Amino acid sequence: MSGLLDLAVPGAGSAVDVLLKIVQLGNEMREVQQSCKRLHGRLDVVFNELKMMEEKGQQPQSSAVDKYVDVLAKSLQCLEHYRAKKLVFRLLGYRQMMGEIYQINEDVEMFFRVFNLASTAAVMDWKQQYEADQRAQREFIASMVRD
């Protein structure tokens, strides 16, 4: 790996750029904002772990780096896909979108196991956080529909 900061996500730019885009897209979709923030936080923890390994002279397995790039691309593609839709269509596709975000979080969980990050705050109880976020998001959506 030539350098983690040079790590590119095909068609999307550097890993750093993609992480920033994920935050921006999440902020633009208030109905899933919290889930996107948590996903970004977990992806960022993995990025920082990879960066720390690089700084220590430990080269992560190229398969792990490739998988991370794939997960970043999948995350960005998912959020861009739904962000491109009008709000009403995002609300109609909410369950499908959240299913995709859940699957991405499952993929990210694999990195926490591989890099032994299980005690990190960003990974602890992510499924409970996801469920709590979904409840709050459903309440937010219901209030949007009522108004």
UniProtKB/TrEMBL annotation:
Biological-process GO terms, alphabetical: cell surface receptor signaling pathway
Position of the signal peptide: none
Xref: Pfam families: MLKL_N (PF22215)
InterPro entries listed in its UniProt record: Adaptor_Cbl_N_dom_sf, MLKL-like_MCAfunc, MLKL_N
Domain Mixed lineage kinase: 21-120
Domain of life: Eukaryota
Protein name as it appears in the record: Mixed lineage kinase domain-containing protein
Organism whose genome encodes this protein: Phytophthora sojae (strain P6497) (Soybean stem and root rot agent)
